[in-house]
Write a structure and sequence with these properties.
With 299 residues, this protein is an alpha/beta fold. It has one domain: NADP-dependent oxidoreductase domain (TIM Barrel, Alpha-Beta Barrel). The strands form two sheets. Strands 1-2-3-6-7-8-9-10 form an eight-stranded parallel β-barrel. Helix 4 packs across helix 5 and helix 8 runs antiparallel to helix 11. The structure holds NADP nicotinamide-adenine-dinucleotide phosphate. NADP nicotinamide-adenine-dinucleotide phosphate (NAP) binds next to strand 10 and helix 10.
């Protein structure tokens, strides 16, 4: 199945005329927005050209999805301006009525189905545009999961399916049991985490025709590498870009057409990000940044 999988278009992540950038909602509760402010912000995000929202059942301890649903209810036209990417498969111990003692992964039919239905209820929508399995589960029964996904797709609850933090071999296993293509793998990739660009992950995604989504594309706001910060600053000054824009342009330059999932709650930074994706870095600039990130020149 694997070698026979043809490259597929990824309509869920390639909305007509939109920016190749997603907005992630993991940090929603750092933004200090009530439902109305969130609805206004998301309207501005859509206006800026971003058409993909990334969320997960566990974000904010489970409270992000209901908050997003409240924002959608404030502005009934808002939900349809976005493709929504949801995730499930992680179970967190929590207080209250939860019976979970140990953080673990759960890709069983019962858990995945329950979580998708809960997400749809929270968001007040009838479908997710893309469902991702949040983390590779060592106890995953690939046949059962493939069946579950096929059922969710046929029921119209999920338009397409993908994975997150999967290695190529884990993608291959799951794909070998599925009739529909896995359309995306969301991984940590940035100048602060260059491995997926060098270890075959992005090459494999291109061969499979999968969209690579990059979480924490700005390293989660970290600026811990002084040599990298210096090169980002210098290259940015030479191009009229901010250091963060140079970091996004570095990801954008990769032929895998990576989709960064930006985690900011500030509209000016979203617009900056959209503009950065159109900037093409030359090879020397790209490799200079790689060298600053890894601490050594390429062999
Ligand atoms: N699949 C997974 O396992 C996984 C794991 C982690 C995250 N994610 C997804 O990835 C999304 C993004 O992750 P992230 O928040 O770590 O990404 P990020 O965009 O690398 O980091 C966002 C943080 O950087 C700060 N920041 C500083 N300068 C910025 C600038 N110029 N532009 C934008 N942000 C700037 C933001 O603060 P301000 O808000 O003040 O701008 C925010 O605190 C999450 O929301 C989630 O959807 C997925």
């Amino acid at each position: 199945m694997v070698s026979g999988v043809p490259p597929v278009p990824v309509p869920a992540l390639r909305p007509e005329g939109a920016a190749r950038l997603a907005l992630g909602l993991m940090r929603l509760f750092d933004w200090g927005m009530d439902a109305r402010a969130l609805a206004t912000f998301l309207g501005q995000v859509a206006e800026a050209g971003v058409r993909v929202l990334d969320t997960a059942d566990i974000y904010g301890g489970g409270a992000v999805e209901p908050a997003l649903g409240q924002a959608f209810r404030m502005d009934p036209g808002l939900r349809s301006r976005f493709r929504i990417v949801g995730k499930c498969g992680i179970r967190l111990p929590s207080s209250g009525s939860s019976k979970v003692r140990v953080k673990h992964y759960d890709t069983s039919r019962a858990h995945v189905t329950t979580q998708v239905e809960q997400t749809l209820r929270h968001l007040g929508t009838d479908h997710l545009d893309l469902l991702l399995l949040h983390r590779p589960d060592p106890l995953m029964d690939a046949d059962e999961l493939a069946d579950t996904v096929a059922w969710l797709e046929s029921a119209g609850k999920v338009r397409s399916f993908g994975v997150s933090n999967f290695r190529p071999a884990q993608v291959d296993l799951l794909q070998s049991r599925m009739s529909a293509p896995l359309v995306a793998n969301q991984i940590e990739a940035s100048l602060w985490r260059v491995d997926p660009l060098l270890d075959g992950t992005l090459d494999h995604a291109q061969r499979m025709g999968m969209r690579s989504m990059a979480w924490s594309p700005l390293g989660g706001g970290r600026r811990a590498l002084p040599a990298l910060a210096e090169v980002l600053q210098r290259q940015g000054e030479a191009r009229g870009l901010s250091p963060s824009q140079v970091a996004l342009a570095w990801l954008a330059r990769h032929p895998a057409e990576v989709m960064p999932v930006l985690g900011t709650g500030r509209i000016e930074r979203v617009k900056e990000g959209v503009a950065a994706m159109a900037h093409v870095l030359d090879r020397e600039a790209w490799f200079e940044l790689l060298e600053a990130a890894t601490g050594h020149p390429v062999a």
